[in-house]
Amino acid sequence: MHQMKNYIEIFLTALRLGVTAFGGPVAHLAYFQEEYVKRKKWLSDQAYADLVALCQFLPGPASSQVGISVGMVRGGILGGILAWIGFTLPSVLLLVFFAAYVLQFDVSQSVWISGLKIVAVAVVAHAVLNMGKKLAPDLPRITIMLLAAVALLLFPFSFVQIIIILVAAIVGLWLFKDLTFEEKAPVNINISKKVGILSLTTFTALLIGLPILSQATNVFWLQIVDIFYRVGSLVFGGGHVVLPLLERELVPKDLLTEEMFLAGYGAAQAIPGPLFTFSSYLGQVISGLPGAALATLAIFLPSFLLIIGILPFWDSISHHPKVRAGLLAVNAAVVGILIAAFYDPIFTSGINDSIDFAVALAAFCLLHFWKKPAWLVVIVTVLGYVALKTLL
Q1: Which of 50, 107, 216, 293 is the most exposed place for a label (fewest CB within 10 A)?
Q2: C-beta separation of 95 from 278 below 8 A
Q3: In angstroms, what is the C-alpha Rg of the chain?
Q4: CA-to-CA distance for 392 and 387, rounded, in angstroms?
Q5: If residue 267 lies in a helix (H) or strand (E), which one and from where to where?
Q6: For every one of its 392 residues, what pLDDT tens digit does the chain have, with 9 covering 90 and above?
Q7: CA–CA dist 296, 323 (Å, integer)
């Protein structure tokens, strides 16, 4: 009975985040920290930071992988599945609805969309400030944080993120090699190492086998699974990077038009949840509800297989002194990456004038000083912004 209540709580918590988490992957990490670490206390700040650092290394949607990981820490593989369903389902349903009914409307310029972008500015600023205090508390780590931010602002490419993290890990090994670490509380992962190895083997077998099978059989559904699984396996840098990859895979093959692709991209910007659910829209356009379901499952499956494969080993690896020395620097670098993402695209696309900045400032104060939950700030800010724009 207790376990069932735990599963229900995992699902409902993730569902609430799936309905309210606007603003893209960086904002999602901020919402997760607020909900899972501060409010629910399901894991510590350090454990959460370590999971974020791990998911930055992996291909696929980093914020969704962090959500899946938290679910697995809380309730094993089923907990991870429930956390993913809760967080992903609202945006899947909305994008399927967009594909079926409202592609003829242009929602990209709506006032409430602008309000949601402004909320993202406040949420991410709040998260960066909190994470910076904890993960960059001294001059060496502040320096690493700032250098990471500057590097990514000057060279805003997804592969640069990976280089920054690798360089930070090497610097951390040298810089913090003489530190003595306190015993870290173990994170209980209810997944065996055998299951982890099986999962990584399955991930590799599908990545190699699906293209071969697709070419050999010429089965339509297999082609769809191959395209979305391959893109989900190989994309680094989050949701926006997946868009050109999918476009190159789908539009030249006449599975949908360029105009239909771009219309869905506009819709995907307007909703909460992970941008990878753009696959649901594409699947719906290509082949109705079965296509939407297949495309969604195929693009997220690599994330599940990688997380299940790595988490059983992560706790023992992350306790090693050298790994912990590297992680001190990596976590500081991740904050730097978030600072760069806060500027572009969060701030540059969210703030267009002094009114936008004033509303963002008020939303930040509600979060930071008044300690109001993020979901409430989303509602209050969007309604307030719409009212303000109507009056002025």
Answers
A1: 216
A2: yes
A3: 21
A4: 9
A5: helix 258-269
A6: 778 999 999 999 999 999 988 877 888 998 999 999 999 999 988 889 889 888 877 888 889 999 999 999 999 999 999 999 999 999 999 999 988 875 566 555 578 778 877 887 888 788 788 888 888 999 999 999 999 999 999 998 767 877 898 899 999 999 998 776 666 666 677 889 999 999 999 999 999 999 999 989 989 999 999 999 998 987 765 555 576 678 778 888 888 887 778 677 767 767 888 989 999 999 998 998 999 999 999 999 999 999 999 999 887 787 788 888 888 898 898 889 888 878 877 788 789 999 999 999 999 999 899 988 777 888 899 899 999 988 87
A7: 34
Q: How many CB atoms lie within 10 A of CB 85?
A: 16
Count of other CB atoms within 10 angstroms of residue 5: 9
| 304 vs 232: CA distance, rounded Å | 11
CA 85, CA 87: separation in Å to the nearest integer? 6
**Which structure tokens are listed for 185?**
């509380």
Q: Contact 324/255 with Cβ under 8 angstroms?
A: no
Contact 328, 141 (CB under 8 A): yes
Helices (H), 155-192: 158-175
- Tokens found for residue 100: 């079926």
CA dist., res. 149 & res. 155, Å (int)? 10
What is the dihedral angle through the alpha carbons of 68, 73, 77, 80, rounded to the nearest 10 degrees?
-20
| Angstrom distance (rounded) from CA 29 to CA 141 | 20
* pTM for this model (two decimals): 0.78
Helix (H, G, I), strand (E, B) or coil at 237: coil
Q: For residue 66, what are its two tokens?
A: 């962090």
Distance CA 342, CA 383 (A): 23
Nearest one of 28, 29, 148, 154 to 91, comparing CA atoms: 28
Q: Are 31 and 40 in contact (CB under 8 A)?
A: no
Residue type for position 362:
A
Largest CA distance in the chain: 62
Of 27, 25, 1, 31, which Cα lies nearest the Cα of 13? 31
Angle at 176 between CA 172 and CA 181, to 5 degrees: 120
Spatial neighbors of 73 by CB under 8 A, at least 6 apart, are 42, 43, 47, 51, 79, 187, 188, 189, 311
